[in-house]
């Protein structure tokens, strides 16, 4: 008897993974790959699209050859802000440009000034001005700088949808990709922004479908269904949306700590935009207010600095439990600024040892995190905050955050492979005969 499974490709910047989940959402097979980056025509590093394409087919062949699994459906999740430009025959016309690639200022200014200036433009599209990270601007650049390539362009699709296209042969756009700081969508009109229509770029975009849509596979005789693919940040939110119905915030922690509030429908203000707030979209096309903080990166920088100063290894910081006496001493006589980079200016010889210095740094980091999360709190009463990712395992971070948000329940949430599970859950009915399990997310409560 073969085990019914769903196959999920989870394509990150560094790791490309394939998971098979059984009907209880246990991982029954896993394969991981890393490729060398290549370069685009300007010599800037970028993803190797051809390696990625071959890897998808290799991995699929491998699991189809394994006799013990019956693959009922396949779905994809990947990072956003990356367009693949397809020609008539479905082949990529250009490299997959990196979203960190420098963007020509004059081009950005020309677009902004034609549509009311950077502030009005960013507010309408809920996208802080981020150059190439606004993937719509990448498409505008192709149109303006490479008209001969743009002429051959049949369709531009985001990376998760390209992966789906490889298996289904269908080109579609999905709301989670369009909704992530692409500068394409007008959130007040709930449609493409005027510039997308007036430049004709809309004609190069695939029809929009909901994130839980599935198609038939392109290969004759295949019975499995193929999902449309999801933007990874939106995918990681799905298990929470399906399990918790009282208003909550999810703080997804890693290099970036992203606070996501699916229950805040108020439009963005100018101040929120300046503080790096934006909207994402759920798979159903409803807005999710989000704020971002580069906290994981800063944590890496400052722990290295403390470790070097006190001549210890950074591994020492992993298991420091909170010492409330130290916290009281460090916060007794001063107001901690909610500025993530402020600790970088603090002289380390004012601390007795690395433990005290680390506690002090975490006071700064949590002050910045709390300020970032408060930007999206909204009037609707939030009952719970869930923290997942690296910081959910950090005793000092969790305890200080619980104290800061004293009237909201705070939980460390752990779930192996949340992003991949989100992509499996969204098409649950297409492959799974069991009800959605209620114990996918493990919670640990932190008392204020």
Automatic annotation (TrEMBL):
Keyword list, A-Z: Kinase, Transferase
GO BP field: xylulose metabolic process
Signal peptide positions on this chain: none
Residue span, Carbohydrate kinase FGGY N-terminal domain: 6-227
Boundaries of every Carbohydrate kinase FGGY C-terminal domain copy: 246-429
Gene3D superfamilies: 3.30.420.40
Gene Ontology cellular-component annotations: cytosol
Pfam families: FGGY_C_2 (PF21546), FGGY_N (PF00370)
Single GO molecular function: D-xylulokinase activity
Family: Belongs to the FGGY kinase family.
Designated name of the protein: Carbohydrate kinase
Source organism of the structure: Sphingobacterium haloxyli
